[in-house]
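pipeline/complex-builder :: batch 7 item 3
reading input block
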Amino acid sequence: MKAAILGYGTVGSGVYEVLQKNADVIEARSGERIDVKYVLDLREFPGDPAADVLVHDYECVVNDPEVRIVIETMGGVKPAYEFVRRALEKGKHVCTSNKELVAEYGSELLLLAKERKVNFYFEASVGGGIPIIRPLCECLTADRILEISGILNGTTNYILTRMYNEGADFNRVLKEAQGCGYAERNPAADIEGFDAGRKLAILASIVTGRRVEFGDVVTEGITGITAEDIRYARAMQAKIKLIASAVWEGESFYALVAPRMVAAGHPLYAVDDVVNAVMVRGNMLGNVLFSGRGAGKLPTASAVVSDVIQAARHADENTGLYWSGTRIVPESIRSMQSRYFVRTDAKNRQQAELLFPGLEQIDAGMEEEFAFLTGRMTEGEFAERVEELDRIYAGFRFES
Amino acid sequence: MKAAILGYGTVGSGVYEVLQKNADVIEARSGERIDVKYVLDLREFPGDPAADVLVHDYECVVNDPEVRIVIETMGGVKPAYEFVRRALEKGKHVCTSNKELVAEYGSELLLLAKERKVNFYFEASVGGGIPIIRPLCECLTADRILEISGILNGTTNYILTRMYNEGADFNRVLKEAQGCGYAERNPAADIEGFDAGRKLAILASIVTGRRVEFGDVVTEGITGITAEDIRYARAMQAKIKLIASAVWEGESFYALVAPRMVAAGHPLYAVDDVVNAVMVRGNMLGNVLFSGRGAGKLPTASAVVSDVIQAARHADENTGLYWSGTRIVPESIRSMQSRYFVRTDAKNRQQAELLFPGLEQIDAGMEEEFAFLTGRMTEGEFAERVEELDRIYAGFRFES
């Protein structure tokens, strides 16, 4: 079976490498040999093993009926969307690692794949190498899914882990992470929670069977987190993690990416460094956790190739991965419930105790502050009450 | 689609409950309604919701052509093997939670299922509710699997967690666990590692594609673990866990269930109480971890029902889960490499330092003992050297 790789960057060259190095096991598991007939990239790669199959024009890929599987690893929606759409229209399977593409055009491309009896797969778009899309569709099927909460962005988890270990501020760690290539020059997509938000939109679309738009996911970034916040987290035996979370209650659901205080004992507490993890809570199953090195060239490529194998196994049928184009809008998070950690000025102590009866004081040895943990209440309730306090230094949702 | 449940014990009644309570999502995901036409059990269950469909004779189940899916939750091989074989021969799909059955007759039943173009599924036989069988077969397919290590037995993990938290000896905790129903009256299958060994044999069979016999898995139990061992584990910032591990090196592999010292930072270190976890290491992927509440009525039932849904989706085809009947025997663990933790008499210090140059002394405040961690060496080498020391109080493999 002939395949083509679109984009010979980190993931694309990783896919090429996995297909070469593990050719024997891949052939055994696919039932046939997977040959890369083309690698499409605008650049030249003299001396590279893929140089022989390198092409610069998509037309020769999309118009070659021998190519049954198109592997899209370019990233971004332009021209990836156009290329993927045309491949599906020609009856080719598409496997992609491109979360922007899936978050934005997933429902359209899934429908097209279904109509043409081919598959549009994107295991690598969420959690890199960790299997989560297929387990959600084929394993966790007996349950009503109540919650998916995950650490879906390795860069921010790396930054937060270093902040925690070193008691350091966000900006210093970000600069160092940029210096050694762990964070991008323009880090907004990671640190503002957009990347995690796109991945959450994909997972929520799978669970609800309808289109969850990234723009409807509330995102809060990690840029404001300070060394003092970390000090409190330590005092609480908690860590601050950027959690992407979708919670279902009956027909409605919430979708939020935000930094949270996560207590020791919570399944995501121990997920450090560049590790990603997805926790799924079902009404029968309880919690299951999938974790591993999310990003990275070869883990991501491994997930893409697992999709290629799946496509080869189901070369003549659509396997049913699908959500409809009908948009479903998450509830306003104002009615979402949580506990909250708040740092305020020491002079607010009495007022805080009136506003939040039963609060639990947190002592991290900073005398000029009064910090506390509230009971469970809605975001709306919390916002109203906390507004009464002046000089709020920080606030985080708390998960135990 | 009509199904029959064989055995109305904990898991069987859980399956019935999941099928009733989540009927709507199950129908949506299966593409059709799953009706339980029969529940087979020798006992009566007056007033139970399943009483209406209760039968006592397997003949009426196996001879009813309307029954397309047989759900076997009796446990044990007699009469489960006979019942399952006959169901497959009649062209019925079988979903089971029965690890003894799969470990002993898996290859024969898989072949039969393949010949009859039906499916023999057993997701619940390993890790209870945690998806691991299907992810291994359908997600982690691009990788050469190098290792599977897991905490596959909830009872022993519960006992070891309590021993760790309370600094208590094995026997006391076992008695209490038996008192509250966490451990069975005859606990040998759990505490001697046989249960975990059967599950490991199943996972190893899937990975190698050949029959790995339970009898060829080396098993060491947890009965000898003392409060002093725990004290040393704490001093090393480690925990003692019963680890089931298969390690592949080229064409050969090792299979061992044994208690190990697991250092903080190891993916299995944080897996406590009745939680199960399976770590899979691939040559491209690195480590991925699947964890969750393994056992328990509803989590296990959820995994069984996910198999039922898969069978309904693939009612007319075998989906390829298979290993051949050719037996593959693991290598002798004598050539397996590890580090070792040893407790010996204080008077052996000098000799130990000669036998294990570069050893790392471990101090847990017990002056009459000399305890140390060795470098990496084979089991054979270790056994030869350690034999030179008299009065060995304990020895564990060490994982970091």
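note: The first strand of chain B starts at residue 2 and ends at 6.
queue -> next item
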